[in-house]
Structure formats: structure tokens, C-alpha cells
Amino acid sequence: MSTIEPKKRVALYARVSTDMQATGLEAQVRTLKEYCEHNKILDFELYSDENISGTKSSRPSLDRMMAAVKGGEVSCVIVYSFSRFARSVTHLLSALEEFKKRNIAFVSLTEKIDTSSALGMAIFTILGAVSQLERDLIAERVRNGLKNARAKGKHIGRAKLRDSELIRKLRKAGLTYRAIAVIAKCSHGSVHAELLAQKREQREALEKAKADEAARQAQIDSFAIPSLKTEKEKPPKEKSEVPAP
């Protein structure tokens, strides 16, 4: 038995931040409907959110529209402007990627963007690059912040509750992971994590000792007195010939 695909329609989306902007919502809806009339779009559904900030990625009507998108019920999404749909580049690009994956066109009337056109796809690509740059910058700031915190001796992540010293002593005594977990009152995984941390600390300490020894040897070599080899390497002085009387 073949599956009947749902009939696809055009989704119109409008939003205002406060209930005092009712006229603004009416203006958006009117513009959207005029666009449909001008382009002979008859089968459409209007989704509107009122008194909801654009910074919220989850909104009642927007969520219903995205559910219809994922359900294969939408062929095109038309919005009054980018700012009415999303306030962050990340949110906008996430939705556009969803539309692209499902072969759904996206139209923004204010910016005159239509992703079904060549220019619209070019702008989509530029926005994608900007979004990637934003993610990379955020990731770099996070890494720098964590590095700075570690340099100051701050603990990163959850507080360690296991008794590290006891676990290491018991393991040194030859006890099994299970026995250590019972005595230290922790999980088998905590014992494993602690012993891995111990091996990592030992490896780092060994590498540091090697680096310190290499640095010390290099310092000694820099202050070494030139050997007699230097003298040997000097070319012999030529003997001056005494002229015959």
C-alpha cells in the first residue's frame, strides 16, 4: 500500500514583540497576503506570534510551523523580514539549513531574499560563512577562557567527589577495581577514571622532567669553555722567507 504524501502549502510567518504593536502585526500580515495575491499563491497558512521576543528560538506559532516543515507539509516559508523570524544569525542559519535539507524555499520580503533564486542562494552561502565564523570565535573564546582558568589553578568541570589518595594507595597494594570501589565507596568507573588520571599525571611529570633536563644541559653547553679543538682548527701561520744576502 503506497503512502499518500501530505498536500504542501505555503507558510506565512509574522511576529511582534509586544501586544502594543498590534498595528505592526496587521501591517506584516497584510504585506504577506498581498505578496501571495500578487504571485497567485492561494494555498497558504498564516502563523503569527504576538508579545514574544525574537530572541526566543521557541515560540508557539513558530514551533507549529517548523513541525509542519518537518512533517513535509510546507513547500515555501515567507516572512516579512529576517528580524521577525530570527534575531540571531545562528537561529536563522539553523532554520535555513532545515529548509534547504527539505528542499523548501525561503522568502524574506523586506530584504528581498528568495533562496530559490541564484542571488538568494549566494546570500545564503555568505550568511553560512558568517555563522561559521561566529561559532569559531565563540569556541576560541571558550578555549582561551578555560586555558586562563587552568593557569590560575581553577578546577574545570564538576567537583571531584572520589577519594583520590585512597584509591591510588589501594591499587598500589594490588586490590582489584571492584574491591577498591567498595572500600572507597565509589563506582567502578570512578576508580578507572582516577587511575587514568594518575597515569596521565605520571606521564606529564616524566615529560616535564625530560624537558627540564634538556634545558639544563643546553644551559651548561652555552657556558662551556672552548676546547683546544678551536686552537687546532686555526690555520698554521705561514713562515716568512728570509731573503738571501
Q: How would you summarize this macromolecular structure in one to three sentences?
A:
By secondary structure, the protein is α/β, with parallel strands linked by helices.
Write the topology of this structure.
Layout: E1 9-16, H1 22-38, E2 44-50, H2 60-70, E3 74-79, H3 82-85, H4 89-101, E4 105-108, E5 113-114, H5 118-151, H6 164-172, H7 177-184, H8 188-222, H9 228-233
Parallel strand pairs: 1-2, 1-3, 3-4
Antiparallel strand pairs: 4-5
What does this structure look like?
By secondary structure, the chain is of the alpha/beta class. It folds into two domains: 9-132, Rossmann fold; 164-222, no CATH class. 56% of the residues lie in helices and 11% in strands. The chain has helices spanning 22-38, 60-70, 82-85, 89-101, 118-151, 164-172, 177-184, 188-222, 228-233, and strands at 9-16, 44-50, 74-79, 105-108, 113-114. Strands 2-1-3-4-5 form a five-stranded mixed β-sheet, sandwiched between helices. 16% of the residues are buried. The model has no long low-confidence stretch (mean pLDDT 82).
List keywords for this structure.
245 residues, Rossmann fold, 2 domains, elongated
Number of separate strands: 5
Number of structural units classed as domains:
2
* Fourth CATH level, the homologous superfamily of the largest domain: Resolvase, N-terminal catalytic domain
Number of helices: 9
Query: Which stretches are low in confidence, meaning pLDDT under 50 for 5 or more residues running?
Result: none
Briefly note the CATH topology name of the largest domain.
Rossmann fold
Please provide the ordered H/E string of secondary-structure elements: EHEHEHHEEHHHHH
Instruction: State the distance separating the first and last CA atoms.
Output: 128 Å
3D shape: elongated
User: Into which percent range does the helicity of residues fall?
Assistant: 55-70%
> Over the alpha carbons, how many angstroms does the gyration radius reach?
36 Å
